[in-house]
């Protein structure tokens, strides 16, 4: 081999080394996060506290990014053309294989949104050591916050991942969240989950209890979900609670949701 | 899940311990210099199978092919989670090494690796009592990777003749599929990672 050829190869080698984002990866399931990639739920909620909620809340709902990064980039571009949005909800299945790197890529894309974004954990996010990844990167699997007149309750409903152990979703936690405590002031609540109660991946023994909690609270008119990779809006339990499913970014759609004191409006957007 | 893995392991061990037929032929014409052993040990940093991994392997077909069996460890303090991994690797050396002063440089090595992550968090095949058939369609314990790299043999360095240092860029099939489907956001720089290692001939 000529001298010039191996200098070329050496040049190529240095190019490879310098172009690698994370030069070394110890394991696809390693949980190595930069400080800006930790506690994202708490950070988004802190940003929300700085905002002044109006009488009408404007929320963009998307989800199931899995390994559809290019479509997620396009979502962010399209979402940023909207105005007066309060926050964005990611319906879960942030990752496909439950690997940290996937979450990092999705956050790298979502951080370009003009508004805070909040996530609910999806079944894919619980694969491998994904539960640990989610909790370190985002935060608790069940959480809630009140914004203006509405309380938002994010709940892990991925029963199949826990072998239908009867503990997921956590019905007693949910009941507590929908009950107005002394220091709380909300007139309604929206429950956000990945798997809807009428899905085969939701614990069949908890479907009725789950819906009953929502209904008996008398504060829930709307529950949002993802998972099915399709649009679906229904009042399937013969009462006024609307279950609204948002399609996946892969199908280039998201929901534009407006919420006011005694009602809401759902618009499906294609991009 | 376990029988599959045992089978793969058995296959590799068979290859490693098989008698090297070509080496015996060499013995007849070069009696003065004992033939280099086809066996080696390796220690590797990173490369998707732990912070540090150790390997044992052998060369085949006039050093054109190398097979290794690795065991890697990632401590929680470094990896955020304690992970034990094993891997089998096959590396092909298509180009003859370049002689540079006291060392020989293998400018191109291409390889395939299958790794297995131990632990109850991971499944080799989807447990049938938990999921309907082909629910996910992938394994969380088994990962295939493609590797591209090179190696510097300290062939004519006194007392270090047995040693070599290698570098290896690798990406898993999951990352590769993601890149193919997302050519705008992902790039080779995002999906390839570097491994460094040393090899000692036995």
Q: What number of domains of chain A?
A: 1
Question: What is the percentage of strand-forming residues of chain A?
Answer: 15-25%
* CATH architecture name of chain A: 4-Layer Sandwich
Oligomer: heterodimer
Order of helices and strands of chain A: HHEHEHEHEEHEHEEEEE
DSSP, total strands of chain B: 9
**CATH fold node name of chain B:** Porin
What is the CA-atom radius of gyration of chain A, in angstroms?
Answer: 21 Å
Could you state the order of secondary-structure elements of chain B as H and E? HHEEEHEEEEEHHE
Low-pLDDT sequence parts of chain A? none
What is the CA-based Rg of chain B, rounded? 19 Å
Kindly report the spatial arrangement of strands forming the biggest sheet of chain A. 4-5-6-7-9-8
Q: Quickly count the helices of chain A.
A: 7
Overall geometric form of chain B: globular
Largest interface: A-B, 44 and 53 residues
